[in-house]
Amino acid sequence: MYLKSLSLTNFKNYEHAELVFSPRINCFVGNNGVGKTNILDAVHYLSLTKSFFNAIDSIAIHHGEDYFIINGMFVKNGEEDQIYCAFQRQKQKIMKKNGKEYQKLSDHVGKFPVVMISPADSILISEGSEERRRFLNKIISQYDPEYLDSVLKYNKALQQRNKVLKEFSASGKSDRETILIWDAQLVKYGEYVHRQRADVVNELIPVFREYYSMISSGKETVRLAYRSHLSEGNFADALVNSLDKDSFLGYTTVGIHKDDLILEMDGHPVKLLGSQGQQKSYLVALKLSKFEYIRRKSGIPPVLLLDDIFDKFDAERVEEIIRLVGNSRFGQILITDTHESRLREILATHNTDYKLFVIKDNRIGEEIHNGIRISETK
Q1: What was the pLDDT predicted at 9?
Q2: In the chain, how many H helices and how many E strands?
Q3: Coil/strand/helix, residue 89
C-alpha cells in the first residue's frame, strides 16, 4: 500500500499544493518552519481522520480562511481509492472514500494505516499514563474496530459512574444498584480492552528489543511492560471493593483508564536514566515495533512517516535507521529533515526508488531522476 498523490487546499501554511509520490522513499528537506511536517500531518489526517499533533481541527485551517480540504489517492492491492477529508469552522468534519461519505469517522480508521515517528513522541516518556494508553489505542484501533468501540463505550460508562459517585460524595447517600449497572458496563468493555492491550504488548516486546539493539548497538538493556488493575484479579470484585473509597473521592480509582506502559532502561525508568539520544532511540524502536505489529495484523505495511527524527542522532545511527527502514519489510516512507546534504549522501548509498522535495520560499522543488520540476505551494 502507498499514497500515490496528495492535494492540499487551505491546509496549515499551504493555500494550495499538489504532490505525486514515489511508492518507496520520499524526502522533504528545508529549514524549520517551511511546512515539511505539515505534509506528513496531512497524510495522518487521511489515514486516522485527525492530526497527529492537535486535537482541534480549526488550528489546521490556513490563516484567514474558513475551511481546509485534503485529497489523497491510496493504492492498495492494485486498486486506487480516493480519500477526501474536509473541515469547515462550526461544522462537522467530513471523510469520504471514493465519493461516499462515512457515517462515523471511526469506520475509516485502519483502512489505510500509517505510523508517525516524531520529536513529539517524547511525551510518551515525559508525560503521564494517558499518553501511553493513547499510544496503545492508536495501534489496536488500526486493525480492530471492536476495540475502538469498546474504548468509547467504556469511557461513556466511566463518565456516568463518576457522575453518580460525585453525587454520593456531595450528599452522603449511595445508590448501589445504579453503580452496579455501570460496573457491569465497565467490566464488559474493560475486560475486552485489557485482553487486547495485554496481547499487543506481549507481541511488541521481542520486536522492540530487537529494534533497540540494532539502533543502539546493544549497549543498554531495555524493558517494556504493561501494568493494569485487571492483571491483578477480578475486575468486578475490584470495583465493589473500591466503592467506599470511590464514593468518598467522587471518581473511579480502578480500571483500564489507569493502565500504563512501563518504559525502563537498565532497570530504571528511561525518563530518569536515559540521555536524550538514548530516549530517542527507545522511542524510535518502540514506534518501529508498532509498525511491525500493524503490518503483521493487517497484512500490509503502513505508510511510515519520519518527522525530523535524526535530530540529536549521530551520522552512524541515522544511516542505521535508514538502512533498517529501507529493507523489504517496509513500504512507502515519507521523511523530513533539515539537512539536505546528509539525506542525499545516505540515499546515494541505497539502491532504491526515491523522490526528494526541497521546500523553500513558498515553493516545492521536486527532484526526479533526470531533472527538477518546480510547483507553487503559496
Answers
A1: 97
A2: 11, 16
A3: coil
